[in-house]
Structure formats: C-alpha cells, structure tokens
Design brief:
Spore Coat Polysaccharide Biosynthesis Protein SpsA, Chain A; about 500 residues; alpha/beta
Length: about 500
Amino acid sequence: MITCFLSAAPAEDLAHNVNVLKKTGCISKISAVGKAEINDLGIDGWIAAESLSTTSALKEIAAKATSEFTLIYTKALPFDIGQYALERMMHVCNDSDAGMVYCDYFEIKEGVRTPHPVIEYQDGSLRDDFDFGSILLFKTKALKDAIARMTVDYKFAGLYDLRLKVSQTNKLVHLPELLYSVIETDVRKSGEKMFDYVDPKNRQVQIEMEQACTMHLKDVGAWLAPEFTKIHFNEGDFPFEASVIIPVRNRVKTIGNAIKSVLSQQTNFPFNLIIVDNFSTDGTTDLIRSFAQEDKRVELVIPERKDLGIGGCWNEAIMHPTCGKFAIQLDSDDLYIDNHVISRIVAAFYEQNCAMLVGSYRMVNFKLEEIPPGLIDHKEWTPGNGRNNALRINGLGAPRAFYTPVIRDIKVPNVSYGEDYALGLNISRKYQIGRIYDPLYLCRRWDENSDASLDIIKLNGHNFYKDKIRTLEFWARQQYVKGGQLVKC
C-alpha cells in the first residue's frame, strides 16, 4: 500500500532502513534518492539527484509513486518504525481525508532515546524549518497533484514547495503519537541553532525559500504588493524626540553596561531612557535607581501590575508620558555599538518614511568577542517583498524602533516571546518597515539568555505561538486582499 522514497545514506544505514520498512508488511516498492547509486541493498529503484529537496527528484517520485500512499524519509540516518505505525498513519490519513500525515517520534542523541513531540500545522506555519519529523506519509493523489503544479525547478526548496502546495488543497494532519525512532546528530542547544537561517552560507537556500513562499501567498490570496501608507511624523506632542526602552528583570550583571551605552549617545535632539523593571530581586532595581539619581534622562518605571510579560512592560513604557516620538529597543543584555546609534535610527525614520525600523547586530560572547555567525543583518528583508517574506522567517531582526503613535495604537501583546514579531507583522501590513544593514549593537550570547537552552516543550510552545501569530496575520491579509480594506487586529 506504500511506495517509499529514502534519502541516500551509507550502505549499511540504507540497508538497515530498507529492512525496517520491509518488515512492516505495508511496502510496495522502495527507492533511494541520491547522487551515487548503491546496488544490492534490496531496493527497487534509484533516483539520481542531489537530494530530496530538488524539484527534479520530486517529479521523479511522482512518476514512480504507484501505491495509494507515498512515504518520504528525509534523513540519511538509521531509523526504526514503531509497532503497526504505518498502518496507524494510513488509517488516520484516510479517516481525516488528509493530504499528508506526520507524527511525534523518539530521537536518539548520544545513545539516549527521548520523546520528540511536534506541533500542529496551521495556515501560518509558513517557516521553512517547520518540524514535521523525518517521516512524511502522503496520500499519493495529493502528492501527485501538488507536484504537477510545481513550475519552478528548485535546488533547495523542493520539499518546502511540495508541502505548501499540498496544504493549499489538503489538510496536513499531526498525529500526536510516538511512532518511530531516529538518530539525531545535531546536539547543539536551541540558542545555537536559532540563527542558522540568517547565516550567510545559507543565503542561496533562503532566496529559494522566499520565492516558494511568495508564490504560495499569491496562490492563496495573502500576498501584499509594495504599497504603503505614508507617515507625516506630526502626530502628538512629545517631550523627547526619542526614547530608548529597556524591559528588565534580574539582570544586575548586564544592565549597568546597557545603561551606559545609552547615556553615551550623542544627538542634536533630546532623548531619554525608560527602564521598566519587572520586580527584580537581585539588586537590578537599586542599580537602575542609582543611575536615575545621577542622570535625569533615566526614567525608572515599576509597574503596578504583577502579570506583565516583556510585551506588557513595553506597553508601560510607550504609554508613559515621558515617551518620545520614536521608541527604540535595547535588551538588558546588550550594548549599542557606538555613540551615534540613536541619531542614525531617528534619521532613518525620516529618510525611509517608515513606521518601524530594524537594524543589524553583531553576535558576541560575554567578553564582547565575535562569535558565529557574526553579523546578523537580515538582508532577506527587501523593500519590495519584505513584509511577505516576514511570514516565512522566524524573526525580523534587531534592534527595533517604532514611531510611537503607531505602536500606541496597536499595543504590544503581553507575552515574553514573539511580542516584537507580532508587532512587526501587524505594522508591516500597512506601513513600510525601514532597514539599517550596518551593525547597531552587540548582542551578548551567554548561558543566562532566555533562549539559550530550551527543552522541546518550551521550544514547541514558542514555535506554536509564532505560528499562531502568523496565522492571524495570514487571515488578516487574505481579508485585505479580498475586500481591499486593511483589517486591524
């Protein structure tokens, strides 16, 4: 009932995978996909291709898939199938009328087997690194229909293009059951993996992914043309031209240097620093207060509410009467790169007529020594397609700055992860987001960063929330395209 296609692997591993599949009793044919053919492994065919991610390989898969279901295994590592797992996946695929089924699995890291749950697919699950696991079971008709609609010959984005096209006419169903085991060789912490997509060595991959996502958004009526509402920068009466905003909790080791980097800024306009201290208990409050007593530009805000996340702290700052015309972000761990950052940001708002501006930063360790991947400049954000590509990538970059009347109108979601991304998506629906591609601050990576080492449950929670934010924005843009009116959320 299943035609299988496996990523090429060393002969011993490939033979193991073939044997595992044949023991299930569900397999019609098995083919391997890779550059060099390996014979005498019990497989029924070979597709000569760089990888499964090429469009050419997928077209051959569509031609060779003759069973009701098609299984694609995306890794070149040994795996094991759970008890009656493939029967279970086929039943669910039929019962739910799905185009594709994926499931939770066990991962084996350094000999230790642990559960690896994955998350539900949403309309906004558009990031190309969405974790489906490595075993994908397709209804063959859905797979063939999707591949028949592929018009671009991708080298890297073929599988991404496939699941986007399948999702246009079929459900992608998550089965929350641990149905197989696979070896995982990437043992890096979450904080080390999160910047892979902006690593310069992956730039060509990202270009293809953007092209595939843009075509998908056009197909489903969620693509926005580069037409933006003009800003006149004359709303309100502000006591300062700019305010730097730092939400903080228990960062006594770093907040002092962050404050000094702000107060050393040189401008030809008045600015201040608003620090929202979310009830620190490690001496952070007293340290901030000492700066505020010496420099009137430092505004210490301690909220009345006890239920605020980072987004809620931002709302406290932007609604504060001392907030300036432009609200500029700085994390309590980080430092501005020189004394002219605020001046450059404010000038860029007027030059680019944008409601939000995103800069670039350099990754450093706690000793301020550069660490890979170095400069994070998010060059994938282009004036013509940036707000569409923003629905694919997992962040918009930093530091971020906002025209205060716009952010006051929208408000920041009261969460402590993804609040900046949600805000940027909302703003980009109507307004241009400006860019500065030179580094504006040093991002210090250390063990106490909030995202340095997340377990799979927390990581899934973060990814699910960002997918939900994308879904809400995806729906809003579909309404806008259909009705010609911007929908505010």
